[in-house]
Write a structure and sequence with these properties.
Subcellular location (chain A): Cytoplasmic vesicle, COPI-coated vesicle membrane; Endoplasmic reticulum membrane; Golgi apparatus membrane
Radius of gyration of chain A: 17 Å
Structural class of chain A: mainly alpha
Largest interface: A-B, 26 and 10 residues
Helix content of chain A: over 70%
GO molecular function (chain A): ER retention sequence binding
Distance between the termini of chain A: 43 Å
Distance between the termini of chain B: 21 Å
Number of strands of chain B: 0
Helix content of chain B: under 10%
Strand content of chain B: under 5%
Pfam family, one (chain A): ER_lumen_recept
Number of strands of chain A: 2
Protein name (chain A): ER lumen protein-retaining receptor
Radius of gyration of chain B: 7 Å
Oligomer: heterodimer
Keywords (chain A): Cytoplasmic vesicle, Endoplasmic reticulum, ER-Golgi transport, Membrane, Protein transport, Receptor, Transmembrane, Transmembrane helix, Transport
């Protein structure tokens, strides 16, 4: 464990908690892409199946349980409890255009042709594009609630910190995982446009609105 | 350095 990975995990945890609390307290999921949240639930489910097969540490196991629990709770709130506030018209990204290519790539490019490994690889590739429905929805509505931008910032920051963690691990431990690194770079690049808007607008107290 | 997976990572 290093400081970058720790703060990456904490940033990721913060994002998940911010979103869950925002929906729960405002009793509304307006502006939130349910499709992205379903993709994240799939990402955690396919990645953390090793919860059933291996124990790494209390930290590792508890964080995985929290991630899975919160992501399913968020999906439940969006599609069941606060379904009336779900903005289905603007959440129109065709996720099958993500899942099919990512699934195919995971079967073609992986470290080991075993079920758990292919599911892990699928989860890594899927996570790199899972935010696209959310970013697409914001581009369609032309704006985002400030709390949603904080959620997105933490979500984007987490993988950016992981990139530094991988540099650290390569330099000090000689470990690297090309699949995780390439997907992490793609994932972080997808946030760059948002990061620019977040720093130039939200941090100056303005609302995040895109030129419609 | 091998291409070991980071299965200890989240």
């Amino acid at each position: 464990m290093n400081i970058f990975r720790l703060f990456g995990d904490l940033s990721h945890l913060a994002a998940i908690i911010i979103l869950l609390l925002k929906i729960w307290k405002s009793r509304s999921c307006a502006g939130i892409s349910g499709k992205s949240q379903i993709l994240f639930a799939i990402v955690f489910t396919t990645r953390y199946l090793d919860l059933l097969t291996s124990f790494i540490s209390l930290y590792n196991t508890s964080m995985k349980m929290i991630y899975i629990g919160c992501s399913y709770a968020t999906v439940y709130l969006i599609y069941a409890k606060f379904r009336a506030t779900y903005d289905g018209n603007h959440d129109s990204f065709r996720v099958e255009f993500l899942i099919v290519p990512v699934g195919g790539l995971a079967v073609l490019i992986n470290h080991d042709f075993s079920l758990l490994e292919i599911l892990w690889t699928f989860s890594i590739y899927l996570e790199s594009v899972a935010i696209l429905p959310q970013l697409f929805m914001i581009s369609k509505t032309g704006e985002a609630e400030t709390i949603t931008t904080h959620y997105l910032f933490c979500q984007g920051l987490y993988r950016a910190l992981y990139l530094i963690n991988w540099i650290w691990r390569f330099y000090f431990e000689g470990f690297f995982d090309m699949i995780a690194i390439v997907a992490g770079v793609v994932q972080t690049i997808l946030y760059c446009d948002f990061f620019y808007l977040y720093v130039t607008k939200v941090l100056k107290g303005k609302k995040l609105s895109l030129p419609a | 350095p091998g291409k070991l997976n980071h299965k200890d990572e989240l």
